[in-house]
Amino acid sequence: MSFFKKIFSSEKKETLDKGLEKSKTSFFTKLNKAVAGKSKVDDEVLDNLEEILVTSDVGVNTTLKVIERIEERVSNDKYLGTSELNRILREEIAGLLSETNSGEDTEFSIPKTHKPHVIMVVGVNGVGKTTTIGKLAYQFKKQGLNVVLGAADTFRAAAIDQLQVWADRVDIPIVKQSMGSDPASVAFDTLESAVTSNADVVIIDTAGRLHNKVNLMNELTKVKRVMQKVVDNSPHDVLLVLDGSTGQNAFEQAKQFTAATEVTSLAVTKLDGTAKGGVVIGISDQFQIPVKYIGVGEGIEDLQVFNKFEFVDSFFK
């Protein structure tokens, strides 16, 4: 099976291509300069490629893995032309992503093994957390699923208000309390409401402050413990939302949150407004957590299920 089979609709693919345009242009401008006048992949080309990958926010550790794999292919092949470098990079990066991401999904879906499916969303303020929740709720509703939102980020009144705006826009129920309320209490009420209304999916927003990791860890642990009193083994997915445009700062946020709670999946937002799309590759590889969703535009349809085949195809097109 080809790594790069076409499985997205043409409309989704066009959105993805457009969303990665800045990252792709930046990357290939650098790459073309690195191989100018060169016919063979030698040490100088590899050194330049290493610098390009690092400055494209792929991350040092992941870059070293990619370079090592290419070096191995160069030594086995003895003569590797620079004209083949694009194809080889595609294959090696797709291979890296394959180690973490199943990557064959194209539609928004949930496991049918339990009901409701509970998603707890974490991430710092400003990364697009509330927007991601709203777009995710919209996509699940489009699939015919009953969705309930829980506004457990009670630290900021704006967070509750923003989630209410999305609930109104998508026309789905929201459970909330006043600012300063106990987040665990909101989560408990949300799950009780979801069970009573026979909901399919529950999405719980949580506070995004990172100034004290111990407090964050304690709060998220308490929220999870209270949830499990209502729905066994919940949350079933802890989704960390990261802003792709922040590059290396997104790595640091991933490090902090994975230390504070067990993150099971990632959403990387704002890829359309940045040349730092390589961060998706690095974060997925470094933290060995699957990227589940990517944000490639501001429209309500522009949150996509991450598909490694299509991502790599668009990036190296």
TrEMBL record:
Reactions the enzyme catalyzes: GTP + H2O = GDP + phosphate + H(+)
CDD domains: FtsY
InterPro entries: AAA+_ATPase, P-loop_NTPase, Signal_recog_particl_SRP54_hlx, SR_rcpt_FtsY, SRP/SRP_N, SRP54_GTPase_dom, SRP54_N_sf
SUPFAM superfamilies: Domain of the SRP/SRP receptor G-proteins, P-loop containing nucleoside triphosphate hydrolases
Alphabetized UniProt keyword annotations: Cell membrane, Cytoplasm, GTP-binding, Hydrolase, Membrane, Nucleotide-binding, Receptor
Residue ranges occupied by any SRP54-type proteins GTP-binding domain in the UniProt entry: 290-303
Top EC class for this record: hydrolase
Name of this protein: Signal recognition particle receptor FtsY
Source organism of this protein record: Ichthyenterobacterium magnum
Gene for this chain: ftsY
